[in-house]
Structures are given as C-alpha cells and as structure tokens.
Design a protein that fits this description.
- The protein contains six helices and five strands.
Length: 157
Amino acid sequence: MKAVFSGSFDPITRGHVDIVERASHLFHEIVVGVAVNSAKNGIFTMDERVAFVRDAVKDLDRVSVAPVDGLLVEFCEAHGADVIVRGLRFGGDFDYELQMAHLNKAMGDIETVLLPAGREFGTISSSMIRSAAANGGDVGAFVTPMVDAALRARFGA
C-alpha cells in the first residue's frame, strides 16, 4: 500500500521526519508531498522546501518527494496512493484533520491515517521554528543540518 504524507514543510522539522519514518514501517511506499498552504506565510520557496525534504528523508527506503500542485486528492491519484498520512500534535490538530479527512474521502475516496506525534517532537511546529530562528534562537535540535544552515543564512547566526 502506498501513502502520501503532505505538508508545507516550511521548514521540515524532525517531527515531520519522525512521522515519515514511522509511516514507512506501516506502508510499502511513502510519497512526501510538498504543498503550498495559502493560509501560511512561508519563508522558503517550493524548490528550497523540496530540497530540504529530500535531504531529510534521503536515508529512508521507499520514500520519495514531489511538489504538490493542486488538490491533494488529485496528487494521491496521480501517484497511485491509497492513503493520506497526517501527524497529530494536539486536540486542535485532530479537529482540523478529521474535517480534512472527511473532505478528502468525499472528493477522492481516499482514506486518512492519523499518527500521533512522537513524544520528543510533539510540541514542535514549523511556524514555531521560523519564529525562534528569526529571533536568534538555536533551533538546530529540531531541524536537519541543511535546514539549520538555511535558517541561519536567512536570519543570521
């Protein structure tokens, strides 16, 4: 069974990588879809985010990365995916993800599997990482070295 794990990944965090790694033990293949979220103010381009994600998952077998252009259900269909994987951190995530799961099922007849965030990374979000880095915080423990270097270049060491 093939699954898609999508997100804006601006930037990808170790929490995202944890979800991909754990999902790779549940599904035969994972496609990480790098999407644009019009509700978020991102700092990295699509090409940068795809490169960050590819670097972050390069050691994981049966995991590929592709940009999402359009509806997620159409991306899943184009990639032959049977399932959407989503990570959950808090109760608010569940409410949102349940609504999206119902919409995706209605629009594309695709199931959604929700994985709880790992204990170590359950409170991390990309927006928190961006904010901390922009204010001079050391976020190296929460992101890959490539992302850490890009954040330092963007906001100064």
